[in-house]
Specification:
54% of the residues lie in helices and 17% in strands. The strands form 6 sheets. Strands 18, 19, 20, 21, 22, 23, 24, 25, 26, 27 and 28 form an 11-stranded mixed β-sheet that branches. Strand 2 and strand 3 form a beta hairpin. Helix 13 (494-506) packs across helix 21 (791-828), helix 19 (733-776) crosses helix 21 (791-828) and helix 19 packs parallel to helix 22. The longest helix is centred in the N-terminal third of the chain and has 48 residues, at 246-293. The chain is globular, with a radius of gyration of 33 Å. It starts with a helix and ends with a helix.
Length: 878
């Protein structure tokens, strides 16, 4: 049977190669993503290790707020450095300042996009504790001196002795460049962000962290180990601070960096698994067609004594070899692709010049995934092959025109109706605040519960069932849908269009399997398009309805993550001619615990000045007025309050990294939320409880005086900002909203690129199906030529079939995607004001036309082969 399987592979090598291509592309994508993620993680962890190589212990705060990507810790007082330095066994100590800013170019504009802010830190003189090195020049000693990283210096043609500007928490500062240097032992390592070094005192002042370090590094005296040093220092520390070994701190930092990169890798890998699933559909369809075409061959095997198990075994051997070869080739392409990608990324960050390391996990994982996908996809066709009777050897080459068994049709209808019913239940029957607790929380131990929104879970499962139901019930749907889609071809294409329409519908099972591969990719793309369009439209509509002001000033520093508007800017802006009312907004990282012990309402609270804020933000207030929001209290979004059974007068617990948990009474509820904010506090609540890095305002909402032109006032404000904070900008509300939602559209475009891989696979599926069907219909095509059909007409016939199959997949995918996208947005939009479904009709029309054009491109090669087949050999083909 092994020899028979190998002979079968050689006999159908072109057809099976097209199937293997699905495995090749899927494995190449997955292995490439894993290798790229591993390389980036190794680079980041290696840089962390080399930067902290001489650190034997670290003193840090024990108060920390964690998230999936980062952690926020309370700072360490600079006074603690002297106390630690007196501990026996400490040979050296240095505090580390960390903050953010933006480099301002000679033209007065930021030199970067602001997506990755510039890291601002202090130069450490101790060689063993230093986190960077000089390439040229000397360290900064005066408050007006700076060391700039090599990348920025090269990009902006800055040399030692030049003057440059930097904007941060305290506004705009001018510095003289006295050195070029960066992180790592050589000073030339690049982490993707720009890095500048200031003196310790200037770094504290610039980042708004006067008298505070992010953490303190220690060097041990000879004969003192890291753990011994940490133990001695811990004995002298006040409550709220800890000393950990250098190895522990490096490991924690590497874990945090690796976790963020790992999560990103996993998210991108999802598209690879979707692609492999699509590839599995293509492989199953290919084997199904091949087995139908080999009916006489397999029947002869049965007639010669082969058992059902042997027939199945021969097919499984073919599938395994296809999977192995496809996985090996895919792994090689993945490695080559990553090497090329690293060359591009290497222009932005420092990466190793060697070939990415092929770990056993990547190699065996790629082989296992590729082979398992191929074997699993061929099981059903293989099982069908075992049911071929020996008497079938007397018949002609078979052509499967089945619509699926009655059981299959019934199961598909149940899946489709059940999926739609479950989705409707999630949208219209399940309470928006219902949660499914997976792991109970322990409030006494400070452990949060692990819970998910029940509506989201139910709708997601219903969407998956509905999408998969098309694979099962598709043969019933393909006929009517194909008739509708083929109508223009029948109307305008003459006999060729009529035959093409009938050909696409005469084998519903095969057409379903071919179209389903495209349906999956298009459905996901449409889902995301509808979701993002609804998100963007709702955010813009919500702010437009709520804001009475005409101008918004944004910091250009990333708000809560990278700093904000300097304190002195507000007075300058408020004094600008034409400004009537100014309401500032501040975003603070904080965790609010709900009644179930799980964080609720997002990971931040918003600081406001109640009177001007509510005069410019129009929302219904419940249980009081703007004056009710007094210092020491909090206002809560009414939906969040209802979800947690809170009312005015109840107290909630808010955790800040700086001071821990703080209790606030609820003094006011508002119908919103306001943008995405669920908790509002007076500014007086925040200065003493938040870390210094987050004590700047992120936004100013501004209304102009009656009769003033908002555009003119915005230009005046920009003039003031260029003088004190060039990264900040004043915009009319519509312009600011467009910039705010631009990130969503950027993310959507990146997802489209990822989904393009899945769509490409599905187009190969169309190529494969048409290529195989030409063999099956060789005599039919020869007869068409013999009765007068030209080569051009045969080519048009096959192209028309390809367009119909692609259009079926595209139309079904768009229909399902609109439902999925609208439903997903509905269940996830509880924290968005004015949530409304928006369907991007232009994008969907382009997607539909693109599907038809792609179908034509996919059918070009098979159509050419069909048209070139000689008439006599085609008529005599068996």
């Amino acid at each position: 049977m092994i020899r028979i399987a190998l002979t079968g592979l050689r006999g159908h090598r072109t057809r099976l190669a097209l199937s293997a291509l699905a495995v090749v592309l899927g494995v190449a994508f997955l292995s490439g993503i894993q290798l790229l993620g591993n390389t980036l993680t190794e680079t980041a962890t290696g840089l962390i290790s080399s930067t902290l190589e001489g650190t034997d212990a670290v003193v840090r705060s024990t108060s920390v707020q964690t998230s999936a990507f980062a952690e926020v810790r309370q700072t360490v007082p600079a006074d603690l450095v002297d106390d630690v330095d007196d501990v026996d066994g400490v040979a050296g100590v240095a505090g580390v300042v960390q903050g953010f800013g933006r480099v301002i170019g000679p033209g007065g504009e930021p030199i970067d996009s602001g997506l990755v802010p510039t890291l601002v830190t202090n130069w450490i003189a101790d060689p063993q504790l230093a986190q960077g090195a000089l390439v040229v020049g000397r360290p900064p000693k005066k408050p007006t001196e700076i060391v700039l990283d090599p990348r920025t210096a090269a990009d902006e043609h800055i040399r030692v002795g030049d003057t440059m500007s930097l904007q941060g928490a305290v506004g705009l500062r001018s510095y003289q460049v006295v050195g070029i240097g960066g992180l790592g032992p050589t000073g030339e390592d690049n982490i993707g962000a720009r890095v500048v070094f200031l003196s310790s005192e200037q770094a504290m002042e610039f980042t708004g962290a006067d008298g505070q370090f992010a953490f303190v590094t220690l060097r041990a005296a000879p004969g003192v180990g890291q753990q011994g040093l940490a133990d001695r220092v811990n004995d002298s520390l006040p409550p709220g601070y800890e000393a950990v070994t250098g190895e522990r701190y490096v490991a924690d930092t590497q874990k945090q960096a690796g976790g963020a990169l790992g999560l990103l890798t996993q998210l991108v890998s999802v598209f690879g698994y979707v692609g492999l699933f699509v590839g599995g559909i293509i492989i199953a369809n290919t084997f199904s067609i091949l087995i139908t075409q080999r009916t006489r061959e397999l029947a002869l095997m049965r007639a010669c004594g082969a058992s059902r198990a042997q027939v199945l075994g021969s097919i499984m051997i073919e599938a395994t070899l296809v999977g192995v070869l496809g996985s090996i080739v895919g792994l090689g392409i993945g490695v080559v692709g990553v090497i090329g990608l690293l060359q591009l990324v290497g222009n932005l960050i420092t990466l190793p010049t060697t070939v990415p390391t092929l770990t056993p996990l990547v190699v065996f994982g790629s082989l296992i995934v590729g082979v398992a996908t191929t074997v699993a996809a061929s099981m059903v066709p293989g099982w069908r092959a075992t049911r071929i009777s020996p008497v079938a050897a007397l018949g002609e080459v078979a052509e499967d025109r089945g619509r699926g068994s009655a059981t299959r049709r019934l199961l598909g209808m149940v899946m489709a109706l059940g999926g739609l019913a479950a989705g409707s239940l999630a949208l219209f029957a399940i309470d928006a605040n219902a949660r499914l607790t997976l792991v109970a929380g322990d409030p006494a131990a400070g452990t949060a519960a692990t819970a998910v929104n029940l509506r989201t879970v139910v709708f997601s499962v219903s969407a998956a069932i509905t999408l998969l139901s098309f694979l099962v019930v598709g043969p019933v749907v393909v006929g009517p849908v194909g008739r509708i889609i083929g109508w223009p071809l029948r109307l305008g294409g003459g006999p060729v269009g009529h035959i093409a329409g009938e050909n696409a519908r005469r084998n519903p099972s095969r057409t379903t399997a071919t179209a389903a591969a495209l349906t999956i990719g298009v459905a996901i793309a449409t889902t995301l398009a509808v979701f993002v369009a609804s998100l963007v439209g709702s955010v813009k509509a919500g702010f437009s309805d709520q804001l009475r002001g005409q101008i918004v000033v944004s910091s250009g520093l990333g708000g809560a993550t990278s700093g904000g508007l300097p304190e002195g800017v507000m007075g300058d802006v408020a004094a600008t001619s034409g400004v009537d009312t100014l309401a500032r907004v501040r975003f603070i990282p904080a965790t609010v615990t709900g009644v179930d012990g799980n964080p609720t309402g997002g990971g931040s609270v918003s600081g406001v000045d109640p009177k001007p804020f509510f005069s410019l933000v129009k929302v219904p207030l419940i249980g009081g007025t703007a004056a009710s929001l007094t210092p020491g209290t909090v206002a809560v979004d009414a939906d969040t309050a209802r979800a947690n059974a809170w009312a005015v007068g109840d107290s909630i617990s808010v955790f800040y990294p700086q001071v821990g948990a703080v209790e606030y009474p609820i003094s006011l509820l508002f119908e919103g939320p306001i943008g995405t904010a669920s908790f509002l506090m007076p500014m007086e609540n925040l200065d003493d409880v938040t870390a210094v890095a987050f004590r700047q305002d992120a936004l100013y909402y501004i209304s102009v005086t009656p009769g003033s032109d908002p555009t003119v006032v915005a230009d005046r404000i920009d003039g003031e900002l260029r003088r004190v904070a060039p990264a900040a900008k004043a915009q009319l509300v519509p312009q600011w909203l467009d910039d705010t939602v631009a990130t969503f559209n950027l993310a959507l475009n990146l997802v489209y690129v990822m989904l393009g891989f899945t769509v490409l696979l599905s187009l190969f599926g169309i190529v494969n199906t048409l290529y195989l069907s030409i063999y099956e219909r060789t005599r039919e095509l020869g007869l068409l030529r013999s009765v007068g059909a030209t080569r051009v007409q045969v080519r048009r016939l096959v192209l028309a079939e390809s367009v119909i199959m692609a259009s079926i997949g595209t139309s079904v995918g768009i229909t399902l995607g609109v439902w999925f996208g609208a439903g997903l947005f509905t269940v996830l939009s509880g924290n968005i004001a004015a949530a409304t479904i928006h369907v991007p009709w232009v994008q969907l029309v382009v997607l539909g036309l693109g599907g038809a054009i792609a179908g034509m491109a996919a059918g070009w090669w098979p159509a050419g082969r069909a048209a070139r087949r000689p008439i006599l050999s085609a008529i005599g083909y068996e």
